[in-house]
Amino acid sequence: MKEEIKRFYSQKEQKLLKKLDELFVIWEKRFEGENGWFIRDGFYPGYLGARKKILFIARDCYDIYDGCYISNFIPQYTSGLMNGPNGSKKSINLVRFHKLLIQVAYGILKGDKAPLSWSDIPYARDICETGQIFHDVSFAFMELGKLSHDSESAGTGADWGKISSSVSISTDGDNFLRREIDLLSPDLIIGMNLNENPDGKDYYSIVFEKDISKTSSQICDCAIYQVRLTPKRSIPLLDCWHFSGRFSEEKFIWKPICEALIAINFYQ
Predict the structure, then answer these.
(1) What's residue 120's pLDDT?
(2) Res. 167 pLDDT band, cuts 50 70 90
(3) Are 1 and 114 in contact (CB under 8 A)?
(4) In the chain, N or C terminus with fewer CB closer than 10 Å?
(5) CA–CA separation, 143 vs 41, rounded Å?
């Protein structure tokens, strides 16, 4: 991680950053000779002090050329303005994927006995500009596919071939995806359509192997799993639609997540 970015983190969080950096150094060597840029993700400032530690898991990313995903987005989240082409800027409210990460985390973390209603969640830019991001609201984030590609040549949609190849490299023998999750030690994982994919693979089973199982409670548009992180600690994993999808955010993202959290008594 860039040194000028580390100042945003507490001393305790910097110790976790160091452990992640050490993991990424070893992990990146597995991708030598592969086409793309290895992605170092992890967590945003304030994560360890959050009421609940939330980890979002997505598929793959584009146009991160220096390798550090988190460092790229900290300044953009702080300002509420996202980088565009040719040095342009646009409101984070217009970038569906990132604005939903912030709004969903806000709605979960700000809830008392239940998640907030959608109408009570501010616009993402308001959360950023009022200084709540990285203070009251923070989260961890990881890409399943660890190589960033050029969006101009990649086309639209997920490249499941590249994702599958990346996951195979990351989990061959020493399971680095699982090691990163263990270091982040979340209280809740929210994945984005990683259980039933066009390539026929259930990526949760690949990452967690025998440590994951579906619960008896299931919600439409949100699958509920239990993940055993340690012999004495299990956490919920929710699999929902990808945040970049073009559909009603409240109906297909937020409402199923709320129903799932209530079903598993997340706030008790």
Answers:
(1) 98
(2) very high
(3) no
(4) C
(5) 7
